[in-house]
Specification:
Helix content is 43%, strand content 29%. By secondary structure, the chain is of the alpha+beta class. The chain has a single domain, classed as Thiol Ester Dehydrase, Chain A (Roll). A six-stranded antiparallel β-sheet has the order 1-2-4-5-6-3. The relative contact order is 0.17.
Amino acid sequence: MTDQKLKIYRQAQAPVIRKVNSLARKNFLFRLLLLRVLPMGFLAGLKVSRLDEEACSITVPCKWLNKNPFRSTYFAVLSMAAEMSTGLPAYSYTWGCQPPVSMLITGVSARFSKKAGSIATFTFSNAAAMKLAIEQCIISGEGVVFECESVGTLKDGKEVARFKFTWSFRVKPQN
């Protein structure tokens, strides 16, 4: 029975994952989606630079609207980019799946190491393990907690921040 559930999920979710990944890589369409569902992400200038089944990278510019008084990117904007790097893969693995799976951030921690005075890229490199955790949630019907790490770097490779997000995935009750 568990193999059957997993097979059904994978067959149904594969085209959804491809569709979300394709949409995210089309900057104009992705910006429209942000405007509709995450207006602050649109205003901040978030862009997807990579999204596949292994990793997700989100860039955020340091521009007038995003700056703090110290002439660097405001920490909340950095947090938004880091969260999206973990949330976009989770969204692609859960959007429209059967049974429906809810996703919620239950914890966050951050460590800042350098001012972000230019474009910062946040990368989450463990999307494959996240997918396995979501599949385990579907198979067992039990909630699963998954900890993600997103590392932000500048173009020169210097780290600006490291965020840890705890995601909770739970199968929604069927009525």
